[in-house]
Design a protein that fits this description.
Blueprint: H1 7-31, H2 33-39, H3 44-52, H4 71-82, H5 86-102, H6 107-116, E1 122-135, E2 138-148, E3 156-163, E4 173-179, E5 184-186, E6 200-210, E7 214-216, H7 217-222, H8 234-237, H9 245-269, H10 282-316, H11 321-349, H12 359-371, H13 378-389
Parallel strand pairs: 1-3
Antiparallel strand pairs: 1-2, 2-6, 3-4, 4-7, 5-6
Helix pairs in contact: 1-4, 4-5, 4-9, 5-9, 9-10, 9-11, 9-12, 10-11, 11-12, 11-13
Domain Acyl-CoA dehydrogenase/oxidase N-terminal: 26-114
Pfam family, one: Acyl-CoA_dh_2
Protein name: Alkylation response protein AidB-like acyl-CoA dehydrogenase
Length: 399
């Protein structure tokens, strides 16, 4: 295995720089949060600031100039931003995480993407809803993908496709990397929550994708793709859904922690009929405490989850099916904890919280949109964990 720069040699000072930068950028994103919601896209100023600070390169391999920081440090960056603006944090989580996916492709693809533009990022279109037809030297890809978060600011799309008459990788699914110059964006993102993510649909028509910009579906999912084997840092070589969805769950954590702060300030000053404040009520104090505990516990779950998984990958080179199932379960459970925390306080906030200009209603909507993401669905993740515990084969393609 080729050696890359170690985390200890590059990530700690850079991680501190990224943390300081994110604290400032999060405040700016918070000031723009309502406008981001109305515009249905993250502010260009916020995206530019994150790019210039190197935040999108947090998980990029060091050999390409990335920070290659620890998972826990990455989660903290997402939480910091999500406290202020859930949509901005969602886009940041997606675009920064996909650097590790690019690193799994053959070195020719990495060279093409990061030599031309070292800050290049890929939005997501992971579901294999397009068709790839094998042609000389690669594939011709046609189709549509929905939910491509951050597509307005991405240079590439990480796009799943089904191989027409494919053989080998059942059921013939691949991942492709497609430049946005070959992609048409459809402005169809009219939704209730996470409005500012700009998660629009994208289309391609008979676009040629060379072989080196493709990967079998299971190789990326299982962490044994050809590009990943060049790197020592565990998250490149880990089964992907054992850690990457923690970044999405961290958005929920940040929203919940931010909601606790917003509600606490509101309750402290809100006068009720007897002249006291809402914050004087024992029931309100208990609600604040319980919701804060849930959100904080959720973050601890995510950090412990990823740390244990990375340690197992470092020691054994992979993850057992039991670890994969537990990681999936914990990501979904942490998200559910955060949704419960937000719902409790939103219900207690009363009628003022339903006004469009109130930041609590935006956070409430965003929290429910996070919980609706398929990889964070507890019913699916919990079922898979239980099947593994009982010695049965899980029917979950995300494991």
């Amino acid at each position: 295995m080729k050696k890359t720069a170690s985390i200890t040699s590059i990530s700690q000072p850079r991680a501190r720089d990224l943390k300081i930068a994110m604290q400032s950028i999060a405040k700016s994103a918070g000031e723009r949060a309502a406008q981001t919601d109305r515009d249905r896209v993250v502010s260009a100023e916020v995206v530019s600031a994150m790019r210039d600070a190197g935040l999108f390169r947090a998980l990029q391999p060091a050999r390409w100039g990335g920070a290659e920081i620890d998972n826990a440090e990455w989660l903290d960056l997402i939480v910091e931003l999500a406290r202020e603006c859930g949509s901005s944090a969602w886009v940041y989580s997606v675009l920064s995480a996909h650097a590790t996916a690019i690193a799994c492709f053959p070195v020719e693809a990495q060279t093409e993407i990061w030599t031309e533009y070292p800050w290049a990022v890929a939005s997501s279109a992971v579901a294999p809803t397009a068709i790839a037809r094998r042609v000389d030297g690669g594939f011709a890809v046609s189709g549509k993908w929905s939910f491509s978060s951050g597509c307005d600011y991405a240079q590439w799309a990480l796009a799943g496709a089904r191989v027409e008459n494919g053989e080998g990788e059942a059921p013939g699914m691949i991942f492709t990397l497609i430049p946005f110059k070959d992609i048409r964006i459809e402005d169809d993102w009219h939704v209730v929550g996470l409005r500012g993510t700009g998660s629009k649909s994208i289309h391609v028509a008979d676009v040629f994708v060379p072989e080196y910009r493709t990967l079998p579906f299971r190789q990326l999912m299982d962490g044994n793709a050809i590009g990943a084997l060049d790197y020592e840092t565990p998250y490149y070589r880990s089964p992907r859904h054992a850690w990457a969805p923690s970044g999405l769950a961290a958005v929920g954590v940040g929203i919940a922690l931010g909601f606790v702060g917003k509600f606490t300030a509101y309750a402290r000053d809100r006068k009720i009929l007897n002249g006291a404040t809402m914050g004087d009520l024992d029931t309100i104090q208990l609600k604040i405490s319980e919701s804060a505990a849930e959100a904080e516990a959720a973050l601890r779950i995510l950090k412990a989850n990823t740390a244990e998984a990375m340690a197992e990958v470092a020691a054994t080179g992979t993850l057992t099916i039991g670890t994969r199932a537990r990681c999936r379960r914990d990501q979904a459970f942490a998200t559910r904890l955060c949704m419960v925390a937000v719902d409790r306080l939103y219900t207690a906030a009363g009628a003022y919280a339903i006004y469009e200009g109130n930041s609590m209603q935006q956070a409430f909507r965003d929290m429910h949109a996070v919980a609706g993401q398929v990889v964070l669905n507890f019913d699916a993740a919990g079922k898979s964990f239980s099947r593994v515990m009982m010695g049965r084969v899980p029917d979950d393609m995300l494991l």
